[in-house]
Each structure stands twice: as structure tokens, then as C-alpha cells.
Amino acid sequence: MSASIALPYRIGRCAWFALVALQLAWHGWLARPEHLPTWLALAITAVPLLLPLAALPDLRRALLWVGILSLFYFCHGVAEAWSAPTEKWLALAEIGLTLLLIVALGAGVKRRKPQG
């Protein structure tokens, strides 16, 4: 990738970091879990999103891994929006960020022209 980062990857990166911030705020401050220690909830929700930082020198690869992980967060958001009315706004934010991330990754894919 060139020195300037394409717009879809910048949007994807922002959505990724916003998703990390949302998990930290949601499970660490706004709606702490009732039946789990806070540290465990944060380990389950935020740490997996931090693992692709190891691939960050190659932003496309890091975003690919985050895109795969975001499918879990999309499912989590749908389940929470359905089952927890008090946390519905947080779940909808999670759904929105995961969709933004996936759309940004799809927009960043370079299409090959058909040969023949």
C-alpha cells in the first residue's frame, strides 16, 4: 500500500478503534456485567479486537482480521439489541460500527477485470 491510505481503509480503521472504545465503555463503565467480573468481560470483548494490532504495519491485513472478528460483534449486537432493552442503544451502535467496518473493507477491495 502506498504512503497515503485509501479512504475506505481510513474509515475501516476509525470504525475498528471506535468498536474497541465502545467495548471498553460498554462493559467497563456504562453497563457493567452483573454475573461476571468486569475484567473478564473486557478480556472477552475488547482483547480480541486488539490482537490484529500485531499486523498493523500492513493495515489491509489487520483490517481483514478485524473484519472477520467483527462478525462475532455483529451477532453479539443483534442478540443484545433483541434481549436487553436497557442496552439496546449500545447494541445498535455496535451493529452500526461492524456494518461500517465491513462496508469499508468491501469498498477497499480492488476488483480484477475479467480476462478474455
From TrEMBL:
Keywords: Membrane, Transmembrane, Transmembrane helix. The chain crosses the membrane at residues 12-30, 36-56, 63-83, 89-109. It holds the Pfam family DUF2069. This is DUF2069 domain-containing protein.
